[in-house]
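Justification of computing resources. Each target in the renewal requires a structure prediction run like the one illustrated here; the chain below, 115 residues long, is used simply to show the kind of job we budget for.
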Amino acid sequence: MKESLLKLNEKLKIKDYTLIELSGEFDLNEVENFNSFFEKTKKNTNKIILDLSKLEYLDSSGTGCFVRLHNEIQAMNGDLIIYNPSDFIKDLFSISRLDSFLKIINTKEELDKNL
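Resulting structure tokens:
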């Protein structure tokens, strides 16, 4: 079995949010890993912060997973925050217009204000 290039780590709780750090590369090969992780996570919380500061690569299959997770969390009356994405990922969200509905927060100060 091929080693996963995407690492998902539940880091801590901030207020009633669960912060999850994504690191490595998120492409088509990692969709199952991502979906499996969040099936378990959604059973415990409907408020999630995805820390993307260590995510090096994201393709359209990864962005599709973010959209699906956003929709599922919204249906649970929850909240999904995309936190500290790299300039590459911010550009990708902008080009694909995902920044029009995903809550993207870039700094700790902004995060503190929005929680």
